[in-house]
Protein backbone atom coordinates (compact mmCIF):
# COMPACT_ATOMS: atom_id res chain seq x y z
CA UNK A 1 0.00 0.00 0.00
CA UNK A 2 2.86 2.41 0.67
CA UNK A 3 3.46 4.82 3.50
CA UNK A 4 0.66 6.99 4.85
CA UNK A 5 1.10 10.74 4.41
CA UNK A 6 0.01 11.40 7.99
CA UNK A 7 0.04 9.32 11.16
CA UNK A 8 -2.06 9.87 14.27
CA UNK A 9 0.01 9.18 17.35
CA UNK A 10 -2.08 7.90 20.26
CA UNK A 11 -0.29 8.78 23.46
CA UNK A 12 -0.47 6.00 26.05
CA UNK A 13 1.67 7.30 28.90
CA UNK A 14 -1.01 8.66 31.27
CA UNK A 15 -2.81 5.29 31.23
CA UNK A 16 -0.72 2.38 29.91
CA UNK A 17 2.43 4.17 31.05
CA UNK A 18 1.47 4.95 34.63
CA UNK A 19 -0.95 2.15 35.53
CA UNK A 20 1.76 -0.30 36.60
CA UNK A 21 4.15 2.27 38.07
CA UNK A 22 5.38 0.85 41.39
CA UNK A 23 5.45 2.81 44.62
CA UNK A 24 2.94 5.27 46.05
CA UNK A 25 0.02 6.53 43.99
CA UNK A 26 1.16 9.37 41.72
CA UNK A 27 -0.38 12.75 42.56
CA UNK A 28 -3.30 13.80 40.36
CA UNK A 29 -1.53 17.08 39.57
CA UNK A 30 1.39 15.19 38.03
CA UNK A 31 -1.01 13.21 35.85
CA UNK A 32 -2.89 16.29 34.67
CA UNK A 33 0.41 18.14 34.20
CA UNK A 34 1.60 15.31 31.96
CA UNK A 35 -1.61 15.25 29.91
CA UNK A 36 -1.61 19.04 29.44
CA UNK A 37 2.03 19.02 28.39
CA UNK A 38 1.36 16.20 25.90
CA UNK A 39 -1.48 18.20 24.35
CA UNK A 40 0.84 21.22 24.14
CA UNK A 41 3.29 19.06 22.15
CA UNK A 42 0.64 18.65 19.46
CA UNK A 43 -0.67 15.21 20.38
CA UNK A 44 -4.37 15.01 19.39
CA UNK A 45 -5.29 11.71 21.03
CA UNK A 46 -4.31 11.01 24.62
CA UNK A 47 -5.41 7.98 26.59
CA UNK A 48 -5.74 9.78 29.87
CA UNK A 49 -6.95 7.33 32.54
CA UNK A 50 -8.64 4.04 33.27
CA UNK A 51 -12.04 3.84 34.94
CA UNK A 52 -11.38 0.58 36.70
CA UNK A 53 -11.65 -0.50 40.33
CA UNK A 54 -8.80 1.02 42.36
CA UNK A 55 -8.54 -2.40 44.02
CA UNK A 56 -7.22 -3.70 40.68
CA UNK A 57 -5.24 -0.68 39.55
CA UNK A 58 -4.49 1.70 42.44
CA UNK A 59 -2.60 4.14 40.17
CA UNK A 60 -5.83 4.85 38.24
CA UNK A 61 -8.06 5.43 41.30
CA UNK A 62 -8.29 9.18 40.60
CA UNK A 63 -9.55 8.86 37.01
CA UNK A 64 -12.50 11.23 37.58
CA UNK A 65 -10.26 13.83 39.26
CA UNK A 66 -7.77 13.57 36.40
CA UNK A 67 -10.49 14.16 33.81
CA UNK A 68 -11.79 17.12 35.83
CA UNK A 69 -8.30 18.58 36.33
CA UNK A 70 -6.94 18.71 32.80
CA UNK A 71 -7.17 21.87 30.69
CA UNK A 72 -9.20 20.54 27.81
CA UNK A 73 -7.83 21.68 24.48
CA UNK A 74 -10.02 21.90 21.40
CA UNK A 75 -9.28 19.18 18.89
CA UNK A 76 -7.71 16.82 21.41
CA UNK A 77 -9.42 13.48 21.99
CA UNK A 78 -9.14 12.46 25.65
CA UNK A 79 -9.89 8.74 25.84
CA UNK A 80 -10.05 6.35 28.79
CA UNK A 81 -10.15 2.61 29.39
CA UNK A 82 -13.55 1.28 30.56
CA UNK A 83 -13.54 -2.46 31.22
CA UNK A 84 -17.21 -2.60 32.23
CA UNK A 85 -20.47 -0.65 32.41
CA UNK A 86 -19.67 0.84 35.78
CA UNK A 87 -16.40 2.14 34.37
CA UNK A 88 -18.25 3.51 31.35
CA UNK A 89 -20.73 5.36 33.54
CA UNK A 90 -17.90 7.03 35.45
CA UNK A 91 -16.17 7.94 32.21
CA UNK A 92 -19.33 9.30 30.65
CA UNK A 93 -20.01 11.43 33.73
CA UNK A 94 -16.45 12.75 33.48
CA UNK A 95 -17.10 13.87 29.91
CA UNK A 96 -14.52 11.77 28.08
CA UNK A 97 -14.30 11.93 24.28
CA UNK A 98 -13.77 8.22 23.72
CA UNK A 99 -13.70 4.98 25.71
CA UNK A 100 -11.81 1.77 25.15
CA UNK A 101 -12.32 -1.93 25.84
CA UNK A 102 -9.67 -4.59 26.05
CA UNK A 103 -9.65 -8.21 24.78
CA UNK A 104 -6.88 -10.74 24.27
CA UNK A 105 -6.01 -12.84 21.24
CA UNK A 106 -4.75 -15.57 23.55
CA UNK A 107 -7.20 -17.66 25.57
CA UNK A 108 -4.69 -18.27 28.37
CA UNK A 109 -3.76 -14.60 28.60
CA UNK A 110 -7.44 -13.66 28.79
CA UNK A 111 -8.00 -16.13 31.63
CA UNK A 112 -4.93 -15.03 33.61
CA UNK A 113 -5.24 -11.30 32.92
CA UNK A 114 -8.98 -10.69 33.24
CA UNK A 115 -10.26 -14.00 34.64
CA UNK A 116 -12.56 -14.94 31.81
CA UNK A 117 -12.51 -16.44 28.34
CA UNK A 118 -12.19 -14.29 25.23
CA UNK A 119 -15.87 -14.96 24.42
CA UNK A 120 -16.92 -13.94 27.93
CA UNK A 121 -14.85 -10.75 27.74
CA UNK A 122 -16.53 -9.82 24.46
CA UNK A 123 -19.97 -10.46 26.00
CA UNK A 124 -19.14 -8.22 28.94
CA UNK A 125 -18.41 -5.38 26.53
CA UNK A 126 -21.93 -5.49 25.04
CA UNK A 127 -23.55 -3.26 27.72
CA UNK A 128 -20.61 -0.83 27.34
CA UNK A 129 -21.09 -0.76 23.57
CA UNK A 130 -24.81 -0.18 23.98
CA UNK A 131 -24.40 2.64 26.48
CA UNK A 132 -21.65 4.22 24.39
CA UNK A 133 -23.88 4.07 21.34
CA UNK A 134 -26.68 5.78 23.21
CA UNK A 135 -24.35 8.62 24.26
CA UNK A 136 -22.60 8.65 20.88
CA UNK A 137 -19.22 8.08 22.49
CA UNK A 138 -16.84 6.26 20.15
CA UNK A 139 -15.29 3.04 21.43
CA UNK A 140 -11.76 1.86 20.72
CA UNK A 141 -10.99 -1.87 20.98
CA UNK A 142 -7.65 -3.26 22.08
CA UNK A 143 -6.48 -6.73 21.18
CA UNK A 144 -3.51 -7.89 23.25
CA UNK A 145 -0.88 -10.61 22.63
CA UNK A 146 -1.24 -10.29 18.84
CA UNK A 147 2.27 -11.57 18.14
CA UNK A 148 2.81 -13.90 21.05
CA UNK A 149 1.61 -14.83 24.52
CA UNK A 150 3.71 -15.41 27.63
CA UNK A 151 1.74 -18.65 28.26
CA UNK A 152 0.96 -19.98 24.77
CA UNK A 153 3.88 -18.68 22.72
CA UNK A 154 2.98 -18.05 19.07
CA UNK A 155 -0.50 -16.76 18.31
CA UNK A 156 -2.24 -17.66 15.05
CA UNK A 157 -2.84 -14.47 13.00
CA UNK A 158 -6.33 -15.86 12.19
CA UNK A 159 -7.13 -15.84 15.89
CA UNK A 160 -6.10 -12.18 16.09
CA UNK A 161 -8.30 -11.48 13.07
CA UNK A 162 -11.27 -13.23 14.69
CA UNK A 163 -11.06 -11.17 17.88
CA UNK A 164 -10.39 -7.92 15.98
CA UNK A 165 -13.37 -8.58 13.71
CA UNK A 166 -15.61 -9.34 16.72
CA UNK A 167 -14.70 -5.97 18.28
CA UNK A 168 -15.18 -4.17 14.97
CA UNK A 169 -18.52 -5.86 14.29
CA UNK A 170 -19.65 -4.98 17.79
CA UNK A 171 -19.11 -1.30 16.98
CA UNK A 172 -15.53 -0.39 17.87
CA UNK A 173 -14.43 2.29 15.39
CA UNK A 174 -10.74 1.49 15.77
CA UNK A 175 -8.91 -1.71 16.67
CA UNK A 176 -5.49 -1.36 18.29
CA UNK A 177 -3.30 -4.41 17.80
CA UNK A 178 -1.04 -4.94 20.80
CA UNK A 179 2.24 -6.81 20.86
CA UNK A 180 1.92 -6.92 24.63
CA UNK A 181 5.18 -8.70 25.33
CA UNK A 182 7.14 -7.21 22.45
CA UNK A 183 8.15 -10.50 20.86
CA UNK A 184 7.20 -9.68 17.27
CA UNK A 185 9.49 -9.15 14.30
CA UNK A 186 8.69 -7.30 11.03
CA UNK A 187 7.48 -10.12 8.78
CA UNK A 188 5.41 -11.57 11.62
CA UNK A 189 3.88 -8.11 12.11
CA UNK A 190 3.05 -7.90 8.40
CA UNK A 191 1.47 -11.37 8.33
CA UNK A 192 -0.60 -10.59 11.44
CA UNK A 193 -1.70 -7.27 9.99
CA UNK A 194 -2.62 -8.79 6.64
CA UNK A 195 -4.78 -11.41 8.37
CA UNK A 196 -6.62 -8.70 10.32
CA UNK A 197 -6.91 -6.32 7.36
CA UNK A 198 -8.81 -9.02 5.45
CA UNK A 199 -11.68 -8.42 7.94
CA UNK A 200 -11.22 -4.87 9.27
CA UNK A 201 -10.31 -1.92 6.99
CA UNK A 202 -6.69 -0.77 7.33
CA UNK A 203 -7.91 2.76 8.13
CA UNK A 204 -9.51 1.38 11.31
CA UNK A 205 -6.39 -0.36 12.60
CA UNK A 206 -3.71 0.88 14.98
CA UNK A 207 -0.32 -0.59 15.91
CA UNK A 208 0.41 -0.85 19.62
CA UNK A 209 3.87 -2.36 19.95
CA UNK A 210 5.98 -2.82 23.05
CA UNK A 211 9.75 -2.64 22.81
CA UNK A 212 10.72 -5.49 25.12
CA UNK A 213 13.08 -7.07 22.56
CA UNK A 214 14.02 -3.81 20.84
CA UNK A 215 11.99 -4.68 17.73
CA UNK A 216 9.17 -2.12 17.99
CA UNK A 217 10.50 0.48 15.54
CA UNK A 218 11.43 -2.14 12.94
CA UNK A 219 7.94 -3.63 13.31
CA UNK A 220 6.34 -0.19 13.02
CA UNK A 221 8.35 0.53 9.88
CA UNK A 222 7.10 -2.77 8.44
CA UNK A 223 3.42 -2.02 9.14
CA UNK A 224 3.80 1.57 7.90
CA UNK A 225 4.86 -0.01 4.61
CA UNK A 226 1.46 -1.76 4.67
CA UNK A 227 -0.38 1.50 5.24
CA UNK A 228 -1.09 1.57 8.98
CA UNK A 229 -1.68 5.21 9.92
CA UNK A 230 -2.36 5.09 13.68
CA UNK A 231 0.40 4.29 16.18
CA UNK A 232 0.18 3.96 19.96
CA UNK A 233 3.26 5.01 21.95
CA UNK A 234 4.26 6.29 25.36
CA UNK A 235 6.54 9.25 26.08
CA UNK A 236 9.89 8.23 27.63
CA UNK A 237 8.81 4.61 27.04
CA UNK A 238 6.78 4.78 30.25
CA UNK A 239 4.98 1.60 31.14
CA UNK A 240 5.51 -2.08 30.80
CA UNK A 241 3.50 -5.21 31.11
CA UNK A 242 3.82 -6.98 34.45
CA UNK A 243 3.46 -10.29 32.61
CA UNK A 244 6.48 -9.68 30.41
CA UNK A 245 10.02 -10.40 31.48
CA UNK A 246 12.44 -7.48 31.24
CA UNK A 247 11.94 -3.83 31.97
CA UNK A 248 10.71 -2.45 28.65
CA UNK A 249 7.15 -1.53 27.93
CA UNK A 250 5.59 0.74 25.34
CA UNK A 251 7.71 1.98 22.51
CA UNK A 252 8.79 5.56 23.26
CA UNK A 253 6.80 8.25 21.45
CA UNK A 254 9.97 10.31 20.90
CA UNK A 255 11.62 7.40 19.05
CA UNK A 256 8.51 6.79 16.92
CA UNK A 257 8.28 10.50 16.10
CA UNK A 258 11.96 10.61 15.10
CA UNK A 259 11.27 7.68 12.76
CA UNK A 260 8.17 9.32 11.28
CA UNK A 261 9.94 12.67 10.84
CA UNK A 262 12.74 10.85 9.00
CA UNK A 263 10.19 9.20 6.71
CA UNK A 264 8.57 12.56 5.98
CA UNK A 265 5.28 11.51 7.58
CA UNK A 266 3.30 14.31 9.24
CA UNK A 267 2.09 14.06 12.83
CA UNK A 268 1.70 17.64 14.02
CA UNK A 269 3.83 16.83 17.07
CA UNK A 270 6.88 18.87 18.11
CA UNK A 271 9.88 16.64 18.83
CA UNK A 272 11.84 19.02 21.08
CA UNK A 273 8.80 19.72 23.23
CA UNK A 274 8.03 16.02 23.43
CA UNK A 275 11.60 15.24 24.52
CA UNK A 276 11.30 17.92 27.20
CA UNK A 277 8.00 16.42 28.37
CA UNK A 278 9.62 12.99 28.59
CA UNK A 279 12.40 14.39 30.77
CA UNK A 280 9.88 16.31 32.87
CA UNK A 281 7.77 13.25 33.74
CA UNK A 282 10.90 11.11 34.39
CA UNK A 283 12.07 13.81 36.79
CA UNK A 284 8.69 13.82 38.55
CA UNK A 285 8.73 10.02 38.90
CA UNK A 286 12.49 9.75 39.51
CA UNK A 287 12.56 7.24 36.71
CA UNK A 288 14.98 6.34 33.92
CA UNK A 289 14.10 7.83 30.53
CA UNK A 290 13.48 4.86 28.24
CA UNK A 291 13.59 6.89 25.02
CA UNK A 292 16.85 6.68 23.08
CA UNK A 293 16.01 9.97 21.39
CA UNK A 294 15.36 11.43 24.83
CA UNK A 295 18.73 10.16 26.02
CA UNK A 296 20.54 11.43 22.92
CA UNK A 297 19.01 14.88 23.12
CA UNK A 298 20.02 15.37 26.75
CA UNK A 299 18.25 15.96 30.01
CA UNK A 300 18.49 14.16 33.33
CA UNK A 301 18.44 10.51 32.31
CA UNK B 1 16.21 -7.13 -4.29
CA UNK B 2 14.54 -8.98 -1.41
CA UNK B 3 15.98 -10.40 1.79
CA UNK B 4 19.22 -12.33 1.79
CA UNK B 5 18.97 -15.99 2.83
CA UNK B 6 22.02 -15.68 5.07
CA UNK B 7 23.65 -12.78 6.86
CA UNK B 8 27.21 -12.61 8.11
CA UNK B 9 27.32 -10.84 11.46
CA UNK B 10 30.59 -9.00 12.04
CA UNK B 11 31.13 -8.72 15.77
CA UNK B 12 32.53 -5.36 16.80
CA UNK B 13 32.62 -5.55 20.58
CA UNK B 14 36.30 -6.42 21.19
CA UNK B 15 37.39 -3.41 19.10
CA UNK B 16 34.66 -0.82 18.51
CA UNK B 17 32.98 -1.88 21.75
CA UNK B 18 35.94 -1.68 24.11
CA UNK B 19 38.15 1.01 22.55
CA UNK B 20 36.36 3.92 24.24
CA UNK B 21 35.56 2.14 27.50
CA UNK B 22 36.40 4.57 30.30
CA UNK B 23 38.42 3.64 33.38
CA UNK B 24 41.52 1.47 33.65
CA UNK B 25 42.77 -0.61 30.75
CA UNK B 26 40.79 -3.86 30.55
CA UNK B 27 42.86 -6.98 31.25
CA UNK B 28 44.00 -8.88 28.17
CA UNK B 29 42.44 -12.07 29.58
CA UNK B 30 39.00 -10.44 29.58
CA UNK B 31 39.44 -9.42 25.95
CA UNK B 32 40.56 -12.87 24.86
CA UNK B 33 37.82 -14.45 26.99
CA UNK B 34 35.28 -12.30 25.17
CA UNK B 35 36.64 -13.16 21.72
CA UNK B 36 36.73 -16.89 22.47
CA UNK B 37 33.17 -16.84 23.81
CA UNK B 38 31.98 -14.93 20.74
CA UNK B 39 33.54 -17.55 18.48
CA UNK B 40 31.86 -20.27 20.56
CA UNK B 41 28.50 -18.55 19.88
CA UNK B 42 29.00 -19.21 16.18
CA UNK B 43 30.25 -15.79 15.09
CA UNK B 44 32.59 -16.22 12.10
CA UNK B 45 33.99 -12.71 11.84
CA UNK B 46 35.25 -10.92 14.92
CA UNK B 47 37.00 -7.56 14.87
CA UNK B 48 39.38 -8.34 17.67
CA UNK B 49 41.68 -5.37 18.25
CA UNK B 50 43.15 -2.19 16.85
CA UNK B 51 46.85 -1.86 16.03
CA UNK B 52 47.04 1.83 16.81
CA UNK B 53 49.30 3.90 19.06
CA UNK B 54 48.35 3.30 22.72
CA UNK B 55 48.80 7.06 23.13
CA UNK B 56 45.62 7.46 21.02
CA UNK B 57 43.65 4.46 22.21
CA UNK B 58 45.00 3.10 25.51
CA UNK B 59 42.40 0.31 25.63
CA UNK B 60 43.91 -1.24 22.47
CA UNK B 61 47.54 -1.13 23.65
CA UNK B 62 47.70 -4.91 24.07
CA UNK B 63 46.54 -5.78 20.53
CA UNK B 64 49.47 -8.15 19.91
CA UNK B 65 48.93 -9.92 23.25
CA UNK B 66 45.22 -10.26 22.49
CA UNK B 67 45.91 -11.85 19.12
CA UNK B 68 48.46 -14.19 20.73
CA UNK B 69 46.11 -15.09 23.58
CA UNK B 70 42.94 -16.12 21.76
CA UNK B 71 42.20 -19.76 20.96
CA UNK B 72 41.99 -19.53 17.19
CA UNK B 73 39.05 -21.45 15.81
CA UNK B 74 39.01 -22.76 12.28
CA UNK B 75 36.64 -20.84 10.04
CA UNK B 76 36.65 -17.71 12.18
CA UNK B 77 38.03 -14.54 10.64
CA UNK B 78 39.87 -12.46 13.27
CA UNK B 79 40.21 -8.94 11.89
CA UNK B 80 41.84 -5.82 13.31
CA UNK B 81 41.92 -2.10 12.62
CA UNK B 82 45.20 -0.82 11.12
CA UNK B 83 45.22 2.92 10.52
CA UNK B 84 48.75 3.00 9.08
CA UNK B 85 51.66 0.88 7.87
CA UNK B 86 53.13 0.50 11.33
CA UNK B 87 49.79 -0.82 12.55
CA UNK B 88 49.64 -3.16 9.58
CA UNK B 89 53.10 -4.54 10.32
CA UNK B 90 52.12 -5.31 13.90
CA UNK B 91 48.91 -6.94 12.73
CA UNK B 92 50.67 -9.00 10.10
CA UNK B 93 53.24 -10.17 12.63
CA UNK B 94 50.38 -11.16 14.93
CA UNK B 95 48.91 -13.34 12.18
CA UNK B 96 45.55 -11.62 11.72
CA UNK B 97 43.14 -12.85 9.02
CA UNK B 98 42.02 -9.42 7.84
CA UNK B 99 42.83 -5.77 8.44
CA UNK B 100 40.66 -2.69 8.20
CA UNK B 101 41.12 0.98 7.34
CA UNK B 102 38.88 3.83 8.29
CA UNK B 103 37.76 6.91 6.30
CA UNK B 104 34.98 9.45 6.82
CA UNK B 105 32.28 10.64 4.45
CA UNK B 106 32.40 14.03 6.14
CA UNK B 107 35.34 16.37 5.60
CA UNK B 108 34.91 18.01 9.02
CA UNK B 109 34.67 14.67 10.80
CA UNK B 110 37.83 13.47 9.05
CA UNK B 111 39.71 16.59 10.14
CA UNK B 112 38.54 16.43 13.75
CA UNK B 113 38.75 12.65 14.13
CA UNK B 114 41.99 11.80 12.34
CA UNK B 115 43.50 15.23 11.69
CA UNK B 116 43.59 15.08 7.93
CA UNK B 117 41.35 15.51 4.91
CA UNK B 118 39.47 12.58 3.37
CA UNK B 119 41.85 12.62 0.40
CA UNK B 120 44.88 12.56 2.71
CA UNK B 121 43.42 9.67 4.72
CA UNK B 122 42.93 7.67 1.53
CA UNK B 123 46.52 8.38 0.48
CA UNK B 124 47.81 7.17 3.85
CA UNK B 125 46.09 3.85 3.28
CA UNK B 126 48.01 3.20 0.04
CA UNK B 127 51.09 1.70 1.75
CA UNK B 128 48.76 -0.44 3.91
CA UNK B 129 46.91 -1.66 0.81
CA UNK B 130 50.21 -2.43 -0.92
CA UNK B 131 51.63 -4.35 2.04
CA UNK B 132 48.34 -6.21 2.55
CA UNK B 133 48.30 -7.17 -1.13
CA UNK B 134 51.83 -8.52 -0.86
CA UNK B 135 50.87 -10.67 2.12
CA UNK B 136 47.46 -11.54 0.62
CA UNK B 137 45.65 -10.19 3.66
CA UNK B 138 42.17 -8.90 2.77
CA UNK B 139 41.38 -5.30 3.71
CA UNK B 140 38.02 -4.06 4.93
CA UNK B 141 37.20 -0.36 4.48
CA UNK B 142 35.02 1.61 6.88
CA UNK B 143 33.22 4.77 5.90
CA UNK B 144 31.96 6.76 8.89
CA UNK B 145 29.23 9.43 9.18
CA UNK B 146 27.31 7.99 6.20
CA UNK B 147 23.95 9.34 7.39
CA UNK B 148 25.01 12.45 9.23
CA UNK B 149 27.94 14.22 10.84
CA UNK B 150 28.05 15.90 14.26
CA UNK B 151 29.69 18.96 12.64
CA UNK B 152 28.12 19.15 9.16
CA UNK B 153 24.69 17.61 9.72
CA UNK B 154 23.32 15.85 6.63
CA UNK B 155 25.77 14.07 4.35
CA UNK B 156 25.15 13.81 0.62
CA UNK B 157 24.74 10.12 -0.36
CA UNK B 158 26.91 10.86 -3.42
CA UNK B 159 29.74 11.86 -1.11
CA UNK B 160 29.39 8.52 0.71
CA UNK B 161 29.42 6.75 -2.65
CA UNK B 162 32.59 8.61 -3.70
CA UNK B 163 34.50 7.58 -0.57
CA UNK B 164 33.16 4.01 -0.67
CA UNK B 165 34.16 3.68 -4.33
CA UNK B 166 37.64 5.05 -3.60
CA UNK B 167 38.18 2.40 -0.92
CA UNK B 168 36.78 -0.32 -3.17
CA UNK B 169 38.90 0.76 -6.16
CA UNK B 170 41.96 0.84 -3.92
CA UNK B 171 41.42 -2.85 -3.15
CA UNK B 172 39.13 -3.11 -0.11
CA UNK B 173 37.05 -6.27 -0.55
CA UNK B 174 34.25 -5.04 1.69
CA UNK B 175 32.98 -1.55 2.53
CA UNK B 176 31.25 -1.09 5.86
CA UNK B 177 28.90 1.90 5.91
CA UNK B 178 28.82 3.47 9.35
CA UNK B 179 26.04 5.59 10.79
CA UNK B 180 28.53 6.75 13.40
CA UNK B 181 26.16 8.99 15.33
CA UNK B 182 23.02 6.91 14.75
CA UNK B 183 20.96 9.69 13.20
CA UNK B 184 19.69 7.77 10.18
CA UNK B 185 16.15 6.64 9.44
CA UNK B 186 15.04 3.85 7.05
CA UNK B 187 14.40 5.76 3.83
CA UNK B 188 17.59 7.76 4.32
CA UNK B 189 19.43 4.46 4.79
CA UNK B 190 17.94 3.11 1.56
CA UNK B 191 18.83 6.23 -0.41
CA UNK B 192 22.39 6.20 0.93
CA UNK B 193 22.75 2.50 0.15
CA UNK B 194 21.36 2.88 -3.37
CA UNK B 195 23.83 5.68 -4.10
CA UNK B 196 26.74 3.49 -2.94
CA UNK B 197 25.45 0.33 -4.64
CA UNK B 198 25.58 2.16 -7.98
CA UNK B 199 29.39 2.03 -7.63
CA UNK B 200 30.17 -0.92 -5.34
CA UNK B 201 28.39 -4.30 -5.65
CA UNK B 202 25.80 -4.95 -2.92
CA UNK B 203 27.59 -8.19 -2.02
CA UNK B 204 30.61 -6.12 -0.97
CA UNK B 205 28.71 -3.78 1.34
CA UNK B 206 28.07 -4.00 5.07
CA UNK B 207 25.77 -2.01 7.34
CA UNK B 208 27.36 -0.60 10.50
CA UNK B 209 24.64 1.27 12.35
CA UNK B 210 24.75 2.81 15.80
CA UNK B 211 21.60 2.93 17.90
CA UNK B 212 21.91 6.42 19.38
CA UNK B 213 18.36 7.40 18.38
CA UNK B 214 16.90 3.88 18.60
CA UNK B 215 16.60 3.62 14.80
CA UNK B 216 19.26 0.99 14.09
CA UNK B 217 17.00 -2.07 13.78
CA UNK B 218 14.47 -0.24 11.60
CA UNK B 219 17.34 0.94 9.40
CA UNK B 220 18.78 -2.57 9.22
CA UNK B 221 15.40 -3.96 8.26
CA UNK B 222 15.20 -1.37 5.47
CA UNK B 223 18.65 -2.23 4.05
CA UNK B 224 17.96 -5.97 4.38
CA UNK B 225 15.02 -5.33 2.06
CA UNK B 226 17.60 -3.98 -0.40
CA UNK B 227 19.73 -7.10 -0.12
CA UNK B 228 22.52 -6.14 2.31
CA UNK B 229 23.90 -9.39 3.72
CA UNK B 230 26.65 -8.25 6.12
CA UNK B 231 25.85 -6.50 9.38
CA UNK B 232 28.22 -5.11 12.02
CA UNK B 233 27.04 -5.23 15.63
CA UNK B 234 28.37 -5.37 19.17
CA UNK B 235 27.26 -7.75 21.91
CA UNK B 236 25.38 -6.00 24.75
CA UNK B 237 25.54 -2.84 22.64
CA UNK B 238 29.10 -2.25 23.89
CA UNK B 239 30.74 0.85 22.56
CA UNK B 240 29.77 4.29 21.54
CA UNK B 241 31.26 7.17 19.67
CA UNK B 242 32.80 9.85 21.89
CA UNK B 243 31.68 12.44 19.30
CA UNK B 244 28.00 11.51 19.61
CA UNK B 245 25.76 12.87 22.31
CA UNK B 246 23.94 10.24 24.38
CA UNK B 247 25.13 6.94 25.69
CA UNK B 248 24.30 4.53 22.88
CA UNK B 249 26.82 3.09 20.52
CA UNK B 250 26.76 0.04 18.32
CA UNK B 251 23.50 -1.75 17.81
CA UNK B 252 23.42 -4.84 20.06
CA UNK B 253 24.22 -8.12 18.29
CA UNK B 254 21.56 -9.93 20.33
CA UNK B 255 18.86 -7.54 19.08
CA UNK B 256 20.03 -7.87 15.47
CA UNK B 257 20.10 -11.67 15.79
CA UNK B 258 16.57 -11.70 17.23
CA UNK B 259 15.44 -9.66 14.22
CA UNK B 260 17.21 -11.96 11.74
CA UNK B 261 15.87 -15.11 13.42
CA UNK B 262 12.37 -13.64 13.16
CA UNK B 263 12.89 -12.97 9.46
CA UNK B 264 14.08 -16.54 8.93
CA UNK B 265 17.56 -15.38 7.89
CA UNK B 266 20.40 -17.76 8.78
CA UNK B 267 23.47 -16.61 10.70
CA UNK B 268 24.83 -19.72 12.41
CA UNK B 269 24.86 -17.85 15.73
CA UNK B 270 23.21 -19.20 18.90
CA UNK B 271 21.02 -16.56 20.57
CA UNK B 272 21.03 -17.98 24.11
CA UNK B 273 24.79 -18.33 24.14
CA UNK B 274 25.16 -14.82 22.76
CA UNK B 275 22.87 -13.42 25.46
CA UNK B 276 24.95 -15.23 28.09
CA UNK B 277 28.13 -13.78 26.59
CA UNK B 278 26.63 -10.28 26.73
CA UNK B 279 25.83 -10.72 30.40
CA UNK B 280 29.28 -12.18 31.04
CA UNK B 281 31.17 -9.21 29.57
CA UNK B 282 28.85 -6.70 31.28
CA UNK B 283 29.58 -8.46 34.57
CA UNK B 284 33.33 -8.28 33.90
CA UNK B 285 33.15 -4.57 33.08
CA UNK B 286 30.47 -3.77 35.67
CA UNK B 287 28.53 -2.18 32.86
CA UNK B 288 24.84 -1.89 31.95
CA UNK B 289 23.69 -4.38 29.31
CA UNK B 290 22.55 -2.28 26.36
CA UNK B 291 20.75 -5.12 24.59
CA UNK B 292 16.97 -5.17 25.00
CA UNK B 293 16.97 -8.88 24.18
CA UNK B 294 19.66 -9.36 26.82
CA UNK B 295 17.55 -7.45 29.33
CA UNK B 296 14.39 -9.37 28.43
CA UNK B 297 16.07 -12.76 28.68
CA UNK B 298 17.42 -12.06 32.16
CA UNK B 299 20.82 -11.85 33.75
CA UNK B 300 22.41 -9.14 35.84
CA UNK B 301 21.55 -6.00 33.94
From TrEMBL, chains A, B:
Sequence ranges assigned to domain Pyruvate carboxyltransferase in this UniProt record: 7-275
GO biological process: ketone body biosynthetic process; L-leucine catabolic process
Keywords: Lyase, Metal-binding
PROSITE patterns: HMG_COA_LYASE, PYR_CT
Transmembrane feature ranges: none
GO molecular function, one term: hydroxymethylglutaryl-CoA lyase activity
CDD domains: DRE_TIM_HMGL
Class in the EC hierarchy, top level: lyase
EC number(s) per entry: 4.1.3.4
SUPFAM superfamilies: Aldolase
Reactions catalysed according to its record: (3S)-3-hydroxy-3-methylglutaryl-CoA = acetoacetate + acetyl-CoA
Pathway: Metabolic intermediate metabolism; (S)-3-hydroxy-3-methylglutaryl-CoA degradation; acetoacetate from (S)-3-hydroxy-3-methylglutaryl-CoA: step 1/1
Record family assignment: Belongs to the HMG-CoA lyase family.
Name of the featured protein: hydroxymethylglutaryl-CoA lyase
Species for this entry: Marinobacter profundi
